[in-house]
Amino acid sequence: MLSGKTNSTRNLYVFLKELQTYKVTQSIVFALLSHYINESDGRKQRRLAKSIHGKMKRFTSFVMRTAFVSPKFEPSHFEDEFANQAEMIQSERLDDETIFDEFLRECDSGYGILDDEKFVERMKIQEMRDAKKIKRFLLGLNYDLQSDSEVINEYRCSVEHILPKAEKHWSAWKGFEDQKPSDWVHRIGNLTLLGQSDNKPGDSENRNFSRKKAGYRRSAIALTKELDRHTEWSPDAIDSRQGRLIQRSVKVWSF
Q1: Confidence band of 151 (pLDDT split at 50, 70, 90)
Q2: How many of the other CB atoms lie within 10 Å of CB of 115?
Q3: Using one digit for the tens of pLDDT, what is the confidence trace for 230-245?
Q4: Model confidence over 8-34: pLDDT tens digits?
Q5: How far is residue 123 CA from its own chain's centroid?
Q6: How far apart are CA 103 and CA 85, in angstroms?
Q7: Which of 49, 91, 122, 148 has its CA 20 to 30 A from that of 5?
Q8: 246: part of which helix (H) or strand (E)?
Q9: How far apart are CA 13 and CA 166, in angstroms?
Q10: What is the rounded CA–CA span in Å between residue 156 and residue 223?
């Protein structure tokens, strides 16, 4: 039941995929799932499934939001707290729904990212350089747009920098003539994904945005296909797109 279809694309499978690289979360995930599996009363188990799904959703949102705003997710900051909370869950002292949320807010006291406005403020000029984190962020947004996830093999999709990373191409990007392109390359608004069937831009396409856009238009990834709406690429376009992506991320990783 926990992995069954819901009205949202965010189900147990998605939560586990997002948390899989953060080993410090395993104690809580194991405790929540064990609590469900060990309930022998069918009616109680059905009620428990909804409760645990909600806790998993909020727990994943806390972990992912923290990872997105931090250069590195520091497991040592949460190891003791997560282990103690897992013990509470396993001893069935977590009947009150507010206790788990209070626990997450205590974990968030040094970050402030569960507050939507503070999260948006932290993210509005954020850069991302780690390919795994970028994929996690963009895939989460794309699944919200495009539920037919079979289209995307996330192990074969790649991170794409719209303004190219290679300095040799920058002089041809007229929108950045009065800027340092290096200040914009790793901004969230300049990042997208290419699917396994998408053609990776070569030197010819990297000369300007209009050439790259032709390839984006044919992409199987909705988030990338959206780039066709832009007539040019500039710092203003990156800022604008970053704002839209962040607002969407508030919905995806909601608390």
Answers
A1: low
A2: 14
A3: 999 999 999 999 999 9
A4: 678 999 999 999 989 999 999 999 999
A5: 12
A6: 8
A7: 91
A8: helix 235-252
A9: 36
A10: 16
